[in-house]
Amino acid sequence: MAGDSDRDSENKPPPSVSRVAETPKMIRAERAVADPQGASAQAPEATDVDWEQAWKEGRTRWDAGQSSPLLRRMQAEGEITRLLESVAAPPSDKAPRSDKAPRSDEPMRLLVPGAGSGYDVLTLASAGRHTVGLDAAPSAAQRFAQMKSKLPTAGSTEFICRDFFSLGNDPEHRGKYALIWDYTFFCALPPRLRSAWGDALAALLRPNGVLLTLMYPLIEGEDVARHEGPPFPLSREIYRKHLVEQTGLFELEHFEEVSESHPSRQGKEGFSIWRRTGE
């Protein structure tokens, strides 16, 4: 997860992101021929960072050793459970569609893209949930397997090593997730891929599902326009543009400034809840 060293606050890569195509148009073309079961390869020319190499060389200062204080509090206080209950309950003016809603005996599915070591996957794990971590680096998957063997959790967890942008084309994942947690994943993507990020989230979330974004580094002003990273600077407007304006399928339900962060992230984070609308 996010680094806990002040030295890495602006110029060290956050958790791994998947291999991505050069443009959203190319990404859509790649989806049509992607092997749903295949693991993605690394392409530094697309992501600007060879994440697997960073793992092998021990350049993992983004790894703070635990989930963010905010996520741990939300889990401990039952806020994640309440959000999942709100997903299961359809809007009052609309009955659930039988082909969209999972059976009552199926676990709620949660997704953590760019999961890194998988701290957030384990934090979100609970009875009645199936929590999936996704990362492009095989070393991240190995690290998660080691932690999981030592920290058994309620509910089921899974870690997959493949391309985030092709996941929504796989019937095993498309429209299956009740909740997606994005922290230091969006900021790891080159700005040219932000539109593809919004489209992929809309494809993966089920109707009425929630996207939780712990926004970092949240910057207002001219510096947000710089294209140097990762992490790439973000603003509330950038999130709104690619979720609300672009997809037409998200509504902002909540925003707050974050007071509980890893030390090097203090004062640079915001938290938002987005609801996936439509069918």
3D structure, described in words:
The chain is an alpha/beta fold and 279 residues long. It is built from ten helices and seven strands. It has a seven-stranded mixed sheet, sandwiched between helices. Strand 1 (108-113), helix 6 and strand 2 (129-134) form a beta-alpha-beta unit. The chain is globular, with a radius of gyration of 17 Å. It starts with 23 loop residues before the first helix and ends with a strand. Residues 1-46 and 95-99 have low confidence and may be disordered.
Give the helix proportion (percent range).
Answer: 25-40%
The secondary-structure element order is HHHHHEHEHEHEHEHEE
User: What Rg, in angstroms, do the CA atoms define?
Assistant: 17 Å
The pLDDT mean sits at 81
Structural class category? alpha/beta
Given as residue ranges, the uncertain stretches (5+ residues, pLDDT < 50) are 1-46, 95-99
Q: How many helical elements?
A: 10
Keywords summarizing the entry:
single chain; 279 residues; alpha/beta; 7-stranded mixed sheet; 18% strand
In short:
By secondary structure, this protein is an alpha/beta fold. It is built from ten helices and seven strands.
Could you give the topology of this structure?
Blueprint: H1 24-33, H2 44-47, H3 51-56, H4 69-76, H5 79-88, E1 108-113, H6 119-124, E2 129-134, H7 138-150, E3 156-160, H8 164-167, E4 177-183, H9 194-204, E5 205-215, H10 236-245, E6 250-257, E7 270-276
Parallel strand pairs: 1-2, 1-4, 2-3, 4-5
Antiparallel strand pairs: 5-7, 6-7
